[in-house]
What does this fold into?
Amino acid sequence: MQLTLWTYEGPPHIGAMRIATAMHGLHYVLHAPQGDTYADLLFTMIERRDRRPPVTYTTFQARDLGNDTAELFKSAANDAYERFQPQAMLVGASCTAELIQDDPGGLAKALNLPIPVVPLELPAYQRKENWGASETFYQLVRALCTPHAPAPGTTRAPRANGKRPLCNLLGPTGLGFRHRDDIKEISNLLISMGIDINVVAPYGATPADVARLGEADFNVVLYPETAAQAASWLQRTFAQPFTKVIPIGVGATREFIAEVAALAGVDAAPQLNDPCSHSTWYAKSVDSTYLTGKRVFVFGDATHAVAAARIAAKEMGFNVVCIGTYSREFAREIREAAKLYDVEPLISDDYLEVEARIAELQPELVLGTQMERHIAKRLGIPCAVISAPVHVQDFPARYAPQMGFEGANVIFDTWVHPLMMGLEEHLLGMFREDFEFHDDAGSSHLSHLGAGRSKAKPQHERAISGEMAPNTPPIVGITQPIATADDGSTPAPTVTATARHADGIATGAATPTAANGPWVPVWDADAEKELGKIPFFVRGKARRNTERFAQERALAAITVETLYDAKAHFGR
It folds into this structure.
């Protein structure tokens, strides 16, 4: 366990809560201290659910530790059953309650409740949230489906002639990234192929629905982090095959259609070219070709990271410079994907390590989680969120799937928007000094109203005055001489001006330091002006490379020639 300001995943009981919250008729009794009730806010505030999670906390306090906390748990479980009348119950302990070893599973069994009770053993100090969700769903499926399982070795009967294929959708949970809309998109796609949906689980299902999973012909696994383990058990027990392709992106959606068609025995041709799929043409269109070759950093859960890297490289013409995940259970999949792009994989749940890698690689677009959004903002790099954990703005009211052809359209818009806005801001910066378009120029058809307007300052003057970043005022220091020189003359004052430019880098225009002192970058006005013409999202890298080039050659000042010499040097 690690003390940190941010974590990509919570403890495993949060994963169990995601399963319970996604379902109906299921209740979770959690042996936990009073402080662990914070988890409710994840669902009511961030996911914007209109009801509390179906969780009863024992909420023991410090003074209770000297008494019988086991009785406290049994009372809470009995009260939860009497109040909520669930079809099934989960019981477990939070990471704190795990230390007192009260055995919630054994205690609940002793109550002899008239419903299925599924005990959860979730090692909080070895595992995390996604594993907890996967284990909870697996234990629930196993407990509810086993009574309906055929005898070992029984051959599955073929589907009757004329009967439509039947499948389950497995994996969507509460607090999942666009799970609600992915269900709708993939359900519509399957129905258009002549395939009926038996059960969607856990999202929206009841325990009675989960008990019917074995009736389907095959399973569609949407999120392996949650459903792969349960799907494997269903395959062994009910002889149900399951899909391996995740339909995120145009190419993957077509492969998914072909895979599902093979499992269901239907014709895939009518669905392979959806007329509503615009992202492929948009990626080839004139405005999008300006984005070709952009360097992209990808990080998230393994499913979304692998899919995003494929879309970036194969469908949008980006250059993947790193792919990573915080899900150590899926490190193998990320390492295999990294080989496709000849990059070093990043397997880490330490956001500081992720930030250091982003700063080192200096990508032009970051695709990640909510934390990468914050990191990219600090570094001045465009970013789009592709994976949980996410914040409230990534649970939109509108329809915005990630899967299927419509999901590919949403992804294109989401990813290209920050880059196009960056290009737009760059063009505004380029024309800021134009005689017709500068800041103080009026509209051309209102030129008669432009009298008395002040002349716009040149860009390098705005940089020194701080106008390029109004939230960060410049620091100007003037040091007056306190003594005359040996020849009686008065030395000129030393003026140092520091401004933070739009690229987020503090720069200084200062007199050269002494020969033995540290090297200080000195940009002349023309070089600063030329630097301002570089797009803001790569300007910081250009500045750093130029200053490094000048320092290695001990140049006293950075001129326009230095800027272009550095560009040629690092462009080799």
About this structure: The domain at 12-127 is CATH 3.40.50.1980 (Rossmann fold).
